[in-house]
Amino acid sequence: MPLMRRRLYLMRHAEVSYFDTDGNPVDPVGVSLNNEGVAQAEAAAKALQGIELDRVLTSGLPRTLETAAIVAPRREAETWPDLTEIRGGRLSEIPTDALQHEFVHAFRGVIPNETRFLRGESIGELFDRVLPALDRLVADDDWHTSLAVLHGGVNRAILSYALTAERMFLGHFEQAPACVNVLDLGDDGEWIVRAVNVAAYDLLHLSHRQTTMERYWEQYRLRAENE
Fold this sequence. Notes:
There is one protein chain. By secondary structure, the chain is α/β, with parallel strands linked by helices. It has one domain (6-225): Rossmann fold (3-Layer(aba) Sandwich), CATH 3.40.50. Helices cover 33% and strands 17% of the residues. It is built from six helices and eight strands. The chain has helices at residues 35-47, 62-71, 96-104, 123-139, 152-164, 212-225, and strands at residues 6-12, 55-58, 77-79, 110-111, 145-150, 169-170, 180-185, 191-198. The chain has a six-stranded mixed sheet with strand order 3-2-5-1-7-8. Strand 2 (55-58), helix 2 (62-71) and strand 3 (77-79) form a beta-alpha-beta unit. Helix 1 packs across helix 2, helix 3 (96-104) runs antiparallel to helix 6 (212-225) and helix 4 (123-139) packs across helix 5 (152-164). The longest helix has 17 residues, at 123-139. It is globular, with a radius of gyration of 17 Å. 31% of the residues are buried.
């Protein structure tokens, strides 16, 4: 009899605007999807159409809840606060000459657990809350196919652990807004990573070649130059 693996569609929330029209930073806790993000989520919904989902998980932040409501409107989303995005420090406290490096190298290479994201939460602290949550999901066998709408840093932690079975953070997993990763879980507890960073609205990633953090740096830099 063929092995029936459970499947997790691991998604990043769709596009948001972390700076307002005047170039001022927006509180990342409450930021909502912008118009581009809504269109991205609708494209993902079309790609996942017809898939029967047993559970839909979110971090509880508005951008994950809004994305989930578009992608899986018939399934009530669960809130798992321990799966919120890795928390950065105050940008105003980072020396100006270090800001660019802190942004564009935030997810580069194999990142040590003691490294802090934008001088805030460390990679190890991220693993401390994400991996127990992942274990809880695995331990609950009352699902066959689930969707988790989370965040770029969190997804990288899960993908890294799925591939290595260790607390090893592989930063080069790019996570486009509203992208979907496909992971299968066997009865032996081992993960199979089938697809990474699938963006239904841009399958071949033709729109640009920047990383997410490089794009955020450009937005922040332009705001700073205009002050």
